[in-house]
């Protein structure tokens, strides 16, 4: 199968692949963020890119470039930006990076774009960047590209959630460093996971509001908001199949060829 990630294509091959304006380009959006003692800082970036590549192979799309500068970690969804290991970039940077990418892809001839978010906090700032780029393009007097924005975990089916969380699902906001991300990493990048280092702690109990500066003691000592002790590569396979299937359906519906 031909290469799908544009970072591994030369300029001539890239230009040929996007020349007809009908090739969907998937832009992964991750972060550099702590994910406990058992996983690396690049989890969100790795997983958004991996998922995008798997989906691209199914729908004939291209992937890249990955945005690695994610919005700063929030205590209720990522442990908080006070934790060393998380790199918190301002909203303006995420917005302008997204805006620039859409404008550049449009200049290259790409007319169908999907942002694949892998970091909970990014979504609204990616949305804003896309909205501003479409405004830029529309004001220039031409038809803008169609853009889809999605977070990959939203395509884990209810049946899959029930199967993998028989004791109850804690919610995506506290799944940071937990079963889902760890299972996906165990399947796709097992050498980067150390299950012996997992701190099997109770789920975080953080109030449904924010306090600034963050009260560090409200984040579990692991930096994770739920335990990854029950993670496995087998669960990663089930999750991957559900995510890829759901995203393929969406892209085929939104970008019919």
UniProtKB/TrEMBL annotation:
InterPro entries for the chain: Creatininase, Creatininase-like_sf, Creatininase/forma_Hydrolase
Which terms in the Gene Ontology molecular function aspect does this entry carry? creatininase activity; hydrolase activity, acting on carbon-nitrogen (but not peptide) bonds, in linear amides; metal ion binding
- Pfam families reported in the protein's UniProt record: Creatininase
Q: Which UniProt keywords apply?
A: Hydrolase, Metal-binding, Zinc
Biological process (GO) annotations?
A: creatine biosynthetic process; creatinine catabolic process; riboflavin biosynthetic process
Needed co-factor(s): Zn(2+)
Superkingdom in the source lineage: Bacteria
Report whether Disulfide bond shows up as a keyword of the record.
no
Family designation: Belongs to the creatininase superfamily.
What is this protein's record name?
Creatininase
């Amino acid at each position: 199968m031909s290469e799908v990630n544009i970072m591994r294509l030369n300029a001539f091959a890239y230009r040929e692949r996007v020349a007809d304006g009908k090739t969907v380009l998937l832009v992964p959006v991750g972060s550099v963020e702590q994910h406990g003692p058992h996983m690396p800082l690049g989890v969100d970036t790795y997983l958004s890119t991996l998922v995008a590549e798997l989906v691209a192979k199914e729908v004939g799309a291209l992937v890249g470039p990955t945005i690695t500068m994610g919005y700063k970690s929030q205590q209720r969804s990522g442990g908080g930006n006070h934790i060393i290991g998380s790199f918190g970039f301002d909203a303006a940077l995420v917005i302008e990076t997204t805006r620039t990418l859409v404008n550049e892809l449009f200049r290259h001839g790409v007319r169908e774009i999907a942002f694949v978010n892998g970091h909970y906090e990014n979504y609204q700032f990616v949305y804003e960047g896309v909205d501003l780029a479409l405004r830029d393009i529309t004001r220039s007097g031409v038809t803008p590209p169609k853009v889809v924005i999605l977070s990959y975990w939203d395509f884990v089916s209810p049946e899959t959630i029930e199967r993998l969380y028989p004791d109850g699902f804690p919610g995506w906001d506290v799944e940071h460093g937990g079963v889902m991300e760890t299972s996906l990493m165990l399947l796709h990048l097992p050498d980067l996971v150390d299950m012996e280092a997992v701190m099997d702690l109770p789920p975080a109990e953080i109030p449904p509001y924010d306090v600034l500066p963050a009260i560090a003691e409200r984040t579990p000592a692991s930096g994770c908001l739920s335990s990854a002790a029950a993670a496995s590569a087998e669960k990663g396979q089930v999750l991957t199949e559900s995510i890829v299937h759901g995203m393929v359906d969406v892209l085929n519906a939104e970008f019919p060829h």
